[in-house]
């Protein structure tokens, strides 16, 4: 038997309210949210590529900053995964036995914090250092991703809020460091012939 922390005492009632609302909502809405929850992270990958593509036209330092975004996202995911293993919170759909739109993950697939929310928030915050417009789009999408994970029934609200905070804070701290060293990093990358095309559109 896997021993897990139960998060229902924190906001289990709010989770039940959302799960109940999802069951009573129109089918088209539930389908749209479920698809977004499952596949929406692909949008964040596309935004990262778009940010790098635009940054190449700005300059080498901007391109290096854009190239750092996926690295920062992986770092945020890693921190989030470590927290999951440390806290070991069971999924709400396991402990509360409610009907959910998405199949409940197996025991041992911990709930706190949300990986999806952390990845989305890290991408959004990191992209703000590359393009305010792309960052704003990603921020809106990150909130939608976090909400969708509660809507489909696989996370408590506090899971996704914490995931957003973890991803956002890791990205903010990391990108501040990257921005300070972007010029030096750009010179090093430019010195390597195979990597030089990554920094310029020409």
Main sheet record: none
Broad shape:
elongated
Q: How many beta-strand segments?
A: 0
Regions with pLDDT < 50 over 5+ consecutive residues? none
The computed structural class is mainly alpha
Distance between the termini: 59 Å
- Specify the number of helices: 8
Order of helices and strands: HHHHHHHH
| Integer-rounded radius of gyration | 19 Å
Average pLDDT level: 89
Helix proportion: over 70%
In terms of DSSP E residues, the strand content is under 5%
Oligomer: single chain
Can you describe what's shown?
This protein is mostly helical and 202 residues long. The chain contains eight helices and no strands. Helix 2 packs across helix 7, helix 3 runs parallel beside helix 6 and helix 4 runs antiparallel to helix 6. The protein is elongated.
